[in-house]
Amino acid sequence: MTDTGTPPLVRLTGVGKSHGTVIALRDVDLEADAGEVTCVLGDNGAGKSTLIKIIAGLHRHDAGTYEVAGEPVAFGSPRDALDRGIATVYQDLAVVPLMPVWRNFFLGSERRRGIGRLDTRFMRETTRAELAAMGIDLRDVDQPIGTLSGGERQCVAIARAVYFGAKALVLDEPTAALGVKQAGVVLRYIVQARERGLAVIFITHNPHHAYPVGDRFLILNRGRSAGYHGKDEITREELTALMAGGAELEQLAHELDAAGSTGSAGSASAARRLTEEAERLGLTREAE
Amino acid sequence: MTRSTAGPDAPTGPAGPAAPADERLARRSPLSGLLARPELGALLGAVAVFVFFSVVADAFLQATSFSTVLYAASTFGIMAVGVSLLMIGGEFDLSAGVMVTTSALLAALTAYQLTLNVWAGVAVSLVLTLALGMVNGLLYVNTRLPSFIITLATFFMLAGLNLGVTKAVTGNVASDSVRDMDGFDSARAVFASEVGIGDVEVNVTVFWWLGLVAVATWILLRTRTGNWIFAVGGDAGSARAVGVPVARTKVGLFMGVALCAWISGMHLVFAFATVQSGEGVGNEFFYIICAVIGGCLLTGGYGSAIGAAIGAFIFGMTNKGIVYAEWNPDWFKFFLGAMLLVAAMVNLIVRRRVERSA
User: Fold this and answer.
1) Beta strand pairing call for A10-19 and A22-32
2) What role does this protein play (chain B) (predicted)?
C-alpha cells in the first residue's frame, strides 16, 4: 500500500519512559504503517499502557525517538496527537452511557450551524452512515449508547476515530472485556480499519486475538521488548509461547468452546477461525 | 484484568438456539422510549396532583387561584432551572437558597447606602452574584472536593455574611426600603409587576420562569454547550478524553445558578422593597426537589429543564392547594417529602432501564 521508501506513519525507536525511579518502559522499537496492524502483546504490568500513553500524547517519552511520518514529535496532549491523525480508543471507550449514540459520536467535535446551534440532522445521519459503513446497522441512533453491547460500543468508538480523520488508530485492549463472539466482531472491524488504509496499533494480552489480524507483533515483558517480529517470522505457537500465562489460555479454550457450540451466527466468522486455531493448538475441551 | 472480568453474563450471544435476529430488537418498544423521557414521571405526577386538588379544593380551579399557583411555582421554578442544569452536569449547589438573599441584599444595600439609582444596585448585584457562582465553580474544579461540601461551606458563609453585613451596615436585620429611590418603578416593572392577561393578573416572574425554561431547554438539546453539560455529568473522564472543556462547563453551570439567584433576588427586592437578611435558608432543598421530581438524576447526566419546571409546578400546586383545601399548611412538607421519595424511586427505575447493559 505504501512505498518502501517512505517512512512509516508511526515509528518508535529505542523509546523509554521512567516514572521517578520506576522504569516503566525501556528501549522499545515499534512501527505502524498505513494498511497494517501492529500488535502489542504483554501481560499486565508489561508496559503496554505506558507505551500507549506515549503514542497517544498523554505521556512524553524520555528516551529514544517518536516519529510520525518521519518527523520527530513530542506530544504535549492527546489533542496534539489527534491533530497529527493519531487517535486512541481506550478500554473505557470514552463514551457517556446515558447519552444517545449520535451525541456520543460527535461529543467534543460537535458540528454546528450558525452560532452555538447544533446541526442535529447532519450528526444523526452521519452517525448512522458511518456505523453502517462499519457494518453496524443501528435502528435508532437516539438510543443511549449504554444500551449497546460491549462490542458495538467498541465499534462506535472506532468508527468515531476513523470519521474524525484518524490515520493511525491505537486500540487499548478492545477485546479484553468481551465474550468470544463480541471479540470476533471487534476483530472484524480491526481488519476493516486496516483495509480502509489506517495504521492500526492493537494492544492485547491475547495472542489468539492478535495473530489472525496482525502484520507485526511486539511482545513486551517487564517494560522491555521481548521480541519484535513480522508475521512471516513467527508462528502462532511461538507467539503464544512468548506470552506468559497458561491459566489464561485454558480459560480462553473454554470460551472458544462456548462460541463453537452457539453455532454460526452471522458475524462469528473470526471467532470460528479462532476456535479452529485453538483446537489445532491442542487446547482441548475439558468440559466434555 | 483477566478475561474472567467478563463474568458469567458476558454477551456471548443469544442463549436460545432460535435467535438469529438482532439482540437489540427486543429492547426498544415505543412504550419504553416514552418511559425513558425524563419528564414523564413528573408529568404524570403533575396530572395526579392537579386532579387531586381540583377535587378536594373548590377554589383551586378558579383563574385567580391558578395565577397564584403559577406565581408560587415561578419563584421556585426560576431557581430550579439553574439547579437542574447544574444537577445534569453532575453537581449540587446548597448555597443557592441564601445566594438569592445575598443577591437581593447586594442590590438593596448598594443602592441605598450609596444613594444610587436602583439600577446601579441591580448591576452591581449581577456582577457580584455571578462572581459568587464562579467562586463555587472554581473551588470545585480546583480542589476536586465534592460540590456538596464546597457549597455547604459557602451556604453557611453566605448565610452568616447576609446577617452580619446587613446588621453592620443598617443596624437592623433587614435592608432599608428602596421604594422611594430612583428607578424603583421601572425595576419593579421588570422584576415584580403584575401583567394582566384577560381579567387575570399574572406576576411577571411567571414569564421570567417560562423564558428561562425555554432558553435552558434550547441550550440543553440544541447547542454544543448542552451536549457538554450532559457529558460532564454523565462521565466527566470520558468527556475530558474527547476534548470537552470539563472545568469550564462546570464553572459555567455554577454561574448559571448564580444568574437565576440574581433574577430571584431582584424579584425579592422590588416586590418587597426591603430584604430580610435571614431569608432563603432551606430553599436550596426545594430547588433540588423540583429538579429531582422533574427527572434529574442525583448522579448527573440525565434530566431536563422542562421536567424541573413541571416539578416546580407540582410544588406550586401543592403549596397553594393545601391552602385552598383549607388544610393545615404544616402538611405541605409531608407531601413534598413523599413526592420526593416517589420521584426518586421512579428515577431509579428509569436509570436502571437505560443503563441495564452498561
Assistant:
1) antiparallel
2) Part of the binding-protein-dependent transport system for D-xylose. Probably responsible for the translocation of the substrate across the membrane.
Residue range of the domain that includes B283: 39-355
CB distance from B30 to chain A under 8 Å? Answer: no
* Residue B224: CATH number of its domain: 1.10.3470
pTM of the entire structure?
0.78
User: Is B25 within 8 Å of chain A by CB?
Assistant: yes
B139 in a structural domain: yes
Report yes or no: B21 at the A interface, CB cutoff 8 Å.
no
Q: Quick count: other Cβ atoms within 10 Å of Cβ B196?
A: 8
- Say how far apart CA A127 and CA A189 lie, in whole Å: 16
Chain A: residue whose CA lies nearest to B5: A177
How many domains does chain B fold into? 1
For chain B, where are the alpha helices, taking DSSP H only? 30-35, 40-56, 63-88, 96-113, 118-143, 147-170, 184-191, 204-222, 224-234, 236-241, 246-272, 283-293, 305-324, 331-355
Q: Do B301 and A150 touch (CB under 8 A)?
A: no
| CB nearest to B12's CB, from A137, A146, A258 | A258
Q: Would the CA dihedral through A264, A270, A276, A278 be positive or negative?
A: negative
Q: Which positions ≥6 away from A279 have C-beta within 8 Å?
A: none
- B24 touches A: beta carbon within 8 Å: yes
- Between CA B354 and CA B358 the distance in angstroms is 8
Architecture of domain A1-85+167-244: 3-Layer(aba) Sandwich (3.40)
Low-confidence ranges of chain A (pLDDT < 50): 1-3, 245-247, 264, 266-267, 284-288
Answer whether B5 touches A (CB < 8 Å). Answer: yes
Which residues of chain B are within 8 Å of residue A106 when distances are taken between CB atoms?
Answer: 227
CB pair distance less than 8 Å for A98 and B301: yes
Nearest CA in chain A to B19: A265
Cβ-nearest to B224 among A110, A182, A263: A110
Asked if B224 has any chain A CB less than 8 Å from its own CB, the reply is yes
Within-domain flag for B184: yes
Could you report the per-residue pLDDT of A244-261, keeping only the tens digit for each? Answer: 544 455 566 677 777 666
**B233, part of any domain:** yes
> Do B6 and A177 make contact, defined as CB atoms within 8 angstroms?
yes
Residues 6+ positions from B134 with CB-CB distance below 8 Å: B251, B254, B255, B258
Q: Is B196 on the interface with A (CB under 8 A)?
A: no
Please report, in tens digits, the pLDDT of each residue of chain B (358 residues total): 333 333 333 333 333 333 334 444 444 455 555 555 777 778 888 888 899 889 988 888 888 888 999 999 999 999 999 999 999 999 999 999 999 999 999 999 999 999 999 999 999 999 999 999 999 999 999 999 999 999 999 999 999 999 999 999 999 999 999 999 999 999 999 999 999 888 889 999 999 999 999 999 999 999 999 999 999 999 998 888 888 899 999 999 999 999 999 999 999 999 999 999 999 999 999 999 999 988 888 889 989 999 999 999 998 998 888 888 888 888 888 888 888 888 778 777 766 766 554 4
B9 touches chain A (CB under 8 A): no
Amino acid at A252: L
Q: In chain A, where are the structural domains located?
A: 1-85+167-244, 99-164
Distance CA B161, CA B293 (A): 31
Residue to mutate among B227, B228, B240, B297, with most A CBs inside 10 A, is B227
Residue B17 domain-assigned (yes or no): no
User: Do B6 and A107 count as a contact with CB atoms less than 8 A apart?
Assistant: no
Question: Which residue(s) pair with A172 in the sheet?
Answer: A203
